[in-house]
Structure formats: structure tokens, C-alpha cells
Amino acid sequence: MKVWLEKANKAVNQDGGELNQETAKQFWLEYRKLLSEAEIECPPPDEKERNGKRGRLKRSKSRNLLERLIKYDEDTLRFMENAEVPFTNNQGERDIRMTKVQQKISGAFRSLDGAKMFCRIRGYLSTCKKQGVTSGYAMELLFKGKLPDFIS
Fold it and tell me: Residue 46: phi, psi to the nearest 5?
């Protein structure tokens, strides 16, 4: 699946961020074929193992991933048909990482206002970085009472 997803991402990038309908349809067919093969290779747990237990039977990590790929197929492949959807969510994870590190180190923010200030500063610095402005220069402008050129 990893190899196939990387292949799909490469095709999307070569087509300028969005696949045409015919190519997207072909990728969807390949995706469903891979999932069908995975269903055979990684079947759901056998109901005979229930032994009077209630609830859902324990599944392997690979089975859980397969079920999510099946259930959320449109979300998984949205990057193929919508140029605004990134292939990965790495940027989103990077954006919240510092907040989680701050919480882990200090245990929590002392006040809601402190948390809001922290998030506001991190949001400003993250936006500047995405626009090609270094953190140092962004802070220098801020202390001078100015804003970067992209904010107008």
C-alpha cells in the first residue's frame, strides 16, 4: 500500500496537483484491488474465538489499518482529486508539536490566557515560516511594531 500511495502521489505531482478523471478512476480501481487482496491476506478475526465474550473481537494492527483504509477511502485518496489537500498531514502535526511539548514539560499551561498567547505566537511563527520569513526576522519585525510584507 505504501508503494502504491507513493506512486499515486507522484502521478498527482506530475499532473500538476490533481489527476484527471480517467487517471483517477484507474487509481481507484487499483486501490480497491489492493484492498481486496489485503482482505484475503489479513482476514477479520474468527467469530468462533468469541468464547462467550461480548463486544468487538481484538484485531491486529494491520487489520485495524485495513479497516480504516476501507472505511475512509474517500478521505485517504482525497489528495488525488483536490489540489488543496496535501498528501500527508505532517505540517499539521508539526504545527501542534510545540504545544504538546510545552504541555509535557510544564505539565500544563498556568492559565487559559497563557495558552492563548503561546498558540498565537506559534501560529504567527508557523505562518511566517510557510511564507519564507525566518523566525528571527519575524520576531525582530514584531518587536519593532511591524509585520512582514505578506500580511497587509
Answer: -75, 130
Asked if residue 94 lies in contact with residue 101, where contact means CB atoms within 8 angstroms, the answer is no
* pLDDT, tens digit (0-9, with 9 covering 90-100), for 39-52: 998 888 777 666 76
The terminus-to-terminus CA distance of the chain in angstroms comes to: 44
Asked whether the beta carbons of 31 and 24 are under 8 A apart, the reply is no
Which of 1, 6, 9 lies closest to 81 in space, CA to CA? Answer: 9
pLDDT level of residue 56 (50, 70, 90 thresholds): confident
**How far is it, in rounded angstroms, from Cα 48 to Cα 106?**
49
As a whole number of angstroms, the distance between CA 128 and CA 132 comes to 6
Angle at 37 between CA 32 and CA 38, to 5 degrees: 95
- Domain ranges within the chain, ordered by starting residue: 2-81, 90-143
Question: Is the distance from CB of 101 to CB of 81 less than 8 angstroms?
Answer: no
